[in-house]
């Protein structure tokens, strides 16, 4: 989170995140970045953690599509 906020950080990944956020904002998307405690039982976070670990342990990167229904939504919000 600090890396994204820092104007001094020009890491390739940070720049890509900023670029995508700007693109989404231009399309009237509302984006929020929130710190999520690791292993807090949040389904989407658990999947992301597993995929990140797999990517670091293999010489190739895999990508799995996750159904929208599997994404944890904010309680009380209707989508």
Task: Describe the protein.
There is one protein chain. This protein is mostly helical. The protein has 2 domains: 1-33; 36-69, no CATH class. The chain has 3 helices and no strands. It has helices at residues 2-5, 12-26, 43-57. The two termini are 26 Å apart. The model has no long low-confidence stretch (mean pLDDT 79).
SSE map:
Elements lengths: L1 H4 L6 H15 L16 H15 L22
Count of structural domains? 2
Regions with pLDDT < 50 over 5+ consecutive residues? Answer: none
How far apart are the first and last residues' alpha carbons, in Å? Answer: 26 Å
Quaternary structure = single chain
User: How would the global form be characterised?
Assistant: globular
Largest sheet: none
Beta-strand share of residues? under 5%
Name the average pLDDT.
79
Number of strands: 0
Specify Rg, calculated over alpha carbons.
15 Å
Order of SSEs, N→C? HHH
- Class by SSE composition: mainly alpha
State the share of residues found in helices, binned by percent.
40-55%
Number of helices: 3
């Amino acid at each position: 989170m600090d890396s994204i906020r820092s104007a001094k950080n020009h890491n390739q990944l940070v720049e890509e995140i900023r670029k995508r956020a700007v693109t989404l904002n231009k399309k009237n998307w509302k984006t929020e970045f929130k710190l999520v405690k690791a292993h807090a039982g949040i389904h989407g976070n658990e999947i992301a953690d597993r995929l990140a670990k797999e990517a670091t342990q293999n010489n190739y990167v895999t990508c799995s599509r996750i159904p929208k229904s599997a994404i944890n939504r904010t309680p009380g919000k209707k989508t």
